[in-house]
């Protein structure tokens, strides 16, 4: 069975590269993008199943990037990474069409459960 | 004015919280990765060089978190001291460290050039923080990403000066800054500072303490 492809988008290079390595250890094929303006190009080059997207990227709104991803390919499920699980974040997540959100610092088990649930939704 | 001061504190605290949360997130992931590697390589020997790299990364993040916390601690104690003899260099350095995340999010470079040998000024340090923050915030609102704001200090005619010089492309529609020009003037007058502007350069002049 092919590995699920994850694209991790976060400007914190050390955080993103370490989390990507942890996801790879768990059997996903994870690539990383560290700048908001490189996300769509990366998706065009290598379509992921799931995008994990930091909501607060420098110089860009995570919600706008989420909408761009959904416009480009509505089949990609997006999980937002956020610093706080507020009602506002929940609303932004839903209005932009994200699958779910997870708070930073990340609980890896919680994240993999959400990834697997998003993959199931995709396969339906 | 009270509401504006709360908005200033809100920005400083959220910048600090964002910064520290990122350090904690990296520490958590690096520790998790060490645990993952140990579990994967149960029967194999551990690559000590790889582990020393992970440990070094955790130590770096702890040192950065400690530095920014130290700045916040100093900043917090500025609030209850009233008018005292204060170094403009210390104020500028603290504020730039605490505003680093705000600037980074706007992709604006904050640079500093703090000259030594400047005598202290007699001022309420939290109000000077607020004035300097308001001027930097106003400049950050006006400039597009990849712009630069340089904060320098100097001594001129017996006064301690803090100069802000901005370079970059102005934004088409600037959002409202935390503090209006009128409020900045009021604040400057309250602390006995003189503000002058020329082109993209703004200077706060404070008399040296006698």
Layout of helices and strands:
The complex is a heterodimer of chains A (124) and B (210).
Chain A: E1 5-9, H1 13-25, E2 29-33, H2 39-45, E3 50-54, E4 56-57, E5 60-61, H3 62-72, E6 77-82, H4 87-95, E7 100-103, H5 108-123
Chain B: H1 2-40, H2 48-77, E1 84-86, H3 88-105, E2 109-114, E3 121-123, H4 125-142, E4 148-156, E5 159-167, H5 181-191, E6 194-198, E7 201-207
Helix pairs in contact in B: 1-2, 1-3, 2-3, 3-4, 4-5
Please summarize what this structure is.
Chain A is an alpha/beta fold and 124 residues long. Chain A has helices at 13-25, 39-45, 62-72, 87-95, 108-123, and strands at residues 5-9, 29-33, 50-54, 56-57, 60-61, 77-82, 100-103.
Structural class of chain B: alpha+beta
What's the CATH C level of the largest domain in chain B?
Answer: Alpha Beta
Please count the helical segments of chain A. 5
Q: Under CATH, the topology of chain A is which?
A: Rossmann fold
Spatial strand order of the main sheet of chain B: 2-4-5-7-6
Q: Please give the share of residues in helix of chain A.
A: 40-55%
Largest sheet of chain B: 5 strands, mixed
Radius of gyration of chain B from CA coordinates:
21 Å
Described by the principal axes of the CA atoms, the overall outline of chain A is globular
Q: Report how far apart the termini of chain A are.
A: 17 Å
Strand content of chain B: 15-25%
Total strands of chain B: 7
The assigned CATH architecture of the largest domain in chain B is 2-Layer Sandwich
**Could you say what the CATH architecture of chain A is?**
3-Layer(aba) Sandwich
Query: In DSSP terms, counting alpha (H) and pi (I) runs of 4 or more, how many helices of chain B?
Result: 5
């Amino acid at each position: 069975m092919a590995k699920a492809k994850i694209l991790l988008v976060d400007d914190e290079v050390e955080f993103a590269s370490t989390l990507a390595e942890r996801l790879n250890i768990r059997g996903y094929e994870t690539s990383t993008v560290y700048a908001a303006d490189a996300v769509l190009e990366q998706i065009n080059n290598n379509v992921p199943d799931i995008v994990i997207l930091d909501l607060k990227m420098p110089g860009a709104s995570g919600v706008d990037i989420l909408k761009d991803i959904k416009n480009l390919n509505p089949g990609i499920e997006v999980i937002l990474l956020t610093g706080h699980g507020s009602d506002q974040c929940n609303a932004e997540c839903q209005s932009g069409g994200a699958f779910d959100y997870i708070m930073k610092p990340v609980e890896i088990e919680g994240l993999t459960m959400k990834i697997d649930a998003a993959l199931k939704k995709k396969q339906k | 004015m009270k509401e504006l001061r709360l908005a200033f504190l809100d920005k400083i605290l959220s910048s600090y919280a964002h910064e520290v949360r990122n350090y904690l997130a990296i520490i958590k992931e690096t520790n998790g990765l060490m645990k993952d590697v140990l579990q994967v390589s149960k029967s194999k020997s551990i690559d000590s060089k790889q582990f020393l790299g992970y440990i070094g990364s955790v130590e770096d993040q702890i040192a950065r978190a400690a530095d920014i916390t130290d700045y916040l601690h100093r900043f917090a104690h500025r609030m209850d001291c009233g008018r005292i003899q204060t170094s403009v260099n210390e104020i500028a350095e603290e504020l730039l460290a605490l505003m680093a995340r705000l600037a980074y999010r706007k992709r604006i470079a904050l640079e500093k050039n703090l000259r030594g040998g400047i005598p202290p000024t007699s001022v309420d340090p939290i109000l000077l923080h607020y004035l300097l923050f308001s001027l930097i915030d106003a400049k950050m609102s006006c400039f597009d990403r990849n712009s630069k704001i340089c904060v320098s200090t100097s001594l001129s005619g017996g006064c301690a000066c803090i100069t802000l010089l901005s370079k970059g492309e102005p934004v088409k529609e600037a959002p409202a800054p935390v503090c209006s020009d009128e409020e900045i003037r009021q604040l400057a007058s309250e602390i006995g500072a003189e503000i002058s502007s020329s082109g993209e350069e703004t200077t706060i002049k404070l008399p040296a303490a006698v």
